[in-house]
Write a structure and sequence with these properties.
Blueprint: H1 3-7, H2 17-21, H3 25-38, H4 49-76, H5 80-93, H6 97-112, H7 114-130
């Protein structure tokens, strides 16, 4: 069983069979979460915690691959600590221990550099407004 499958074991998620057959389970879960939140009207806290963990792990990986940890921090905004907690739990459940440790160190750095954290969020928000 893959780390992702183990992390959500016991949670029912409706996805395309082809996603599972092609190692696309994390993407399929993220799409499912997006669909039930945006089209289904659910709030994130109404979904199973393990489902949100996998969704936020996918978000985290996408952000750091695209723009690094500063992009992850800024795109989380005021939800940074809640999303980071989900990512920590998800990475641990998936046995992604090296990535879990990197995240813990990044959170400690962001927490201990609150001014830097606020500046990063503000600068990315300002840049986003310019591109709208």
């Amino acid at each position: 069983m893959s780390g992702t499958a183990h992390a959500i074991w016991g949670t029912t998620v409706v996805i395309r069979r082809s996603w599972v057959q092609n190692d696309g389970l994390p993407v399929a879960i993220s799409e499912f979460v997006g669909d039930v939140i945006h089209a289904g009207g659910y709030l994130p806290h109404e979904l199973p915690p393990k489902l949100m963990q996998v969704h936020h792990v996918g978000f985290y990986i996408g952000q750091i691959n695209n723009g690094g940890h500063s992009q992850f921090i800024s795109n989380c905004g005021e939800d940074f600590y809640a999303i980071s907690a989900d990512v920590q739990d998800g990475l641990k459940a998936m046995d992604a221990l090296a990535q879990h440790q990197i995240l813990i160190e990044m959170i400690a750095l962001a927490t201990n550099s609150e001014a830097l954290f606020a500046l990063t969020v503000a600068s990315h928000a300002s840049a986003a407004r310019k591109h709208r």
